[in-house]
Structure to design on (253 residues):
């Protein structure tokens, strides 16, 4: 019998180990208040702060936030540049507090597409928090799921070509090891605010078995109660990973 390719990395607890969030709806939040779009992005920072605090309080080990997609480069120039400024500013303001709270920061995405100033801030914040042992907060910037898979495929192809990896040894585990979230278990729960029910090129590989939860709440209005609602939804799910419900109940697999 072949080994199943997807092995659960979760501990079957009612609390997800890894929550990923598509933070959507900032623009519409601003528009509904007759404000410019960038004020929606600014207002979203407090939801990020709350999410980090809540994740740590609820015992979540990994929180991954989608902050800027490969496709978001196509937005008007002034929106892109105000978002980039906001990232630098948020890092300047928040990193000390995150560090005090034992949070480890990691950034994933095509970071070489970012400005030198932002890359420097990213590197400093990763270095500063590298030894922290609390929540791991991963921020996806200039990230696309297809880009991630292409990078991984190139890396595998290089290894096969130089003989450091045999073609027959290319499996789930070897491939996952080349992805941006190689050191992180797959998300157990994906939350998307803003009403859309789509993945928008987020973690295409890693979300294979995630529970999906969507809300019409716009990102700047995402608060602890809404986060807890998503966590209760998760707690009520039976995760089967291809098994039958009876198998899960009797063996807990
Ligand atoms: C999400 O909010 C933030 C980013 C994509 C950077 P949006 O800016 O997409 O907000 P809406 O979807 O236009 O309301
Ligand atoms: C997804 O939101 C990307 C982020 C939240 C960073 P978008 O607003 O870009 O998604 P689409 O374009 O509506 O699918
Ligand atoms: Mg959007």
């Amino acid at each position: 019998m072949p080994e199943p390719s997807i092995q659960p990395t979760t501990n079957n607890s009612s609390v997800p180990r890894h929550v990923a969030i598509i933070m959507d709806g900032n623009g519409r939040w601003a528009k509904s208040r007759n404000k410019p779009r960038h004020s929606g992005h600014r207002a979203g920072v407090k939801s990020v702060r709350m999410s980090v605090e809540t994740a740590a309080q609820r015992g979540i080990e990994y929180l991954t936030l989608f902050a800027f997609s490969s496709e978001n480069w196509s937005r008007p120039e002034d929106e892109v540049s105000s978002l980039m400024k906001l990232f630098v500013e948020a890092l300047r303001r928040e990193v000390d507090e995150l560090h005090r709270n034992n949070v480890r920061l990691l950034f994933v995405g095509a970071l070489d597409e970012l400005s030198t100033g932002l890359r420097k801030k990213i590197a400093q914040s990763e270095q500063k928090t590298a030894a922290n042992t609390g929540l791991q907060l991963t921020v996806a910037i200039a990230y696309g799921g297809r880009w991630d898979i292409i990078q991984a495929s190139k890396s595998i192809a290089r290894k096969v070509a130089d003989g450091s990896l045999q073609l027959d040894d290319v499996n789930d585990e070897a491939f996952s090891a080349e992805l941006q979230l190689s050191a992180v278990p797959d998300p157990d729960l994906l939350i998307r605010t803003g009403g859309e029910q789509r993945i928008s090129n987020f973690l295409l590989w890693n979300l294979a078995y995630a529970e999906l939860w969507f809300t019409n709440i716009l990102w700047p209005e995402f608060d602890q109660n809404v986060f807890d609602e998503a966590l209760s939804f998760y707690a009520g799910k039976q995760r089967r990973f291809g098994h039958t419900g009876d198998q899960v109940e009797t063996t807990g697999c």
About this structure: The helical segments are 26-31, 37-57, 77-100, 116-129, 145-161, 172-176, 224-235, 245-251.
